[in-house]
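re: the backbone from monday

yeah here it is again, tokenized this time
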């Protein structure tokens, strides 16, 4: 393994550290390493070769997800009744975590879509479907779905029929839910993209899913 990748692997392992202070120390280093030209070159080559024994973009993403899981658990278990300044600090922390995910995906897929579609989809679906995740997480994951997956034609071919329909179902439920905490314009754009995907990549929308549009129209009339 090259020295560049060895440094990244050590950094990734530190992101899993049980102590939050140790994890925080590694974040800036992590961001520097994933944009280092030599490191990027090695990760690109290993991802393209599809040899799992080498560190590639998907492996790094799995390390990153473990870091996110630890940080999220800390935020969820923190005391709910705190001062406004502490709440603001927590919100800032959530924004930083979401920004790190978006930054990583940008670095990995800048030259070509090298992250596996399934890895990205699993992360997004788990985050969006978990109502205990904050609005920031869920909205940012929805943005990733729209801009980094549904806008990439290569990924369309890697999404199964079941996944297209599941995504459609999840996002229409969010759209029809009056208490949803994700911008409705963003949800509408995602539904539009998913409808196109379902119609071109699957057998088409069945009557069950077409009912969703009827409900959306009924809701619009009530407003």
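seq for it, each position gets an aa:
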């Amino acid at each position: 393994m090259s020295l560049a990748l060895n440094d990244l692997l050590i950094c990734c392992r530190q992101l899993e550290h049980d102590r939050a202070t140790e994890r925080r120390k590694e974040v800036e280093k992590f961001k520097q390493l994933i944009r280092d030209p030599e490191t990027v070159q090695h990760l690109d080559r290993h991802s393209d070769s599809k040899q799992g024994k080498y560190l590639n973009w998907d492996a790094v993403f799995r390390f990153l997800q473990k870091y996110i899981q630890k940080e999220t658990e800390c935020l969820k278990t923190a005391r709910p009744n705190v001062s406004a300044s502490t709440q603001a600090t927590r919100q800032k922390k959530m924004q930083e975590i979401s920004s790190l995910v978006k930054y990583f995906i940008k670095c990995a897929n800048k030259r070509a879509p090298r992250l596996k579609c399934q890895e990205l989809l699993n992360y997004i679906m788990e985050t969006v479907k978990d109502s205990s995740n904050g609005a920031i997480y869920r909205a940012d994951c929805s943005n990733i779905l729209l801009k980094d997956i549904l806008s990439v034609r290569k990924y369309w071919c890697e999404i199964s029929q079941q996944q297209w329909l599941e995504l459609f179902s999840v996002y229409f439920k969010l759209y029809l839910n009056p208490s949803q905490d994700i911008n409705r314009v963003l949800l509408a754009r995602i539904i539009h993209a998913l409808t196109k995907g379902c119609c071109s990549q699957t057998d088409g929308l069945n009557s069950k899913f077409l009912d969703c549009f009827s409900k959306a129209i009924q809701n619009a009339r009530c407003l």
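The CA atoms of residues 78 and 213 lie 40 Å apart. The chain has a mean pLDDT of 85.
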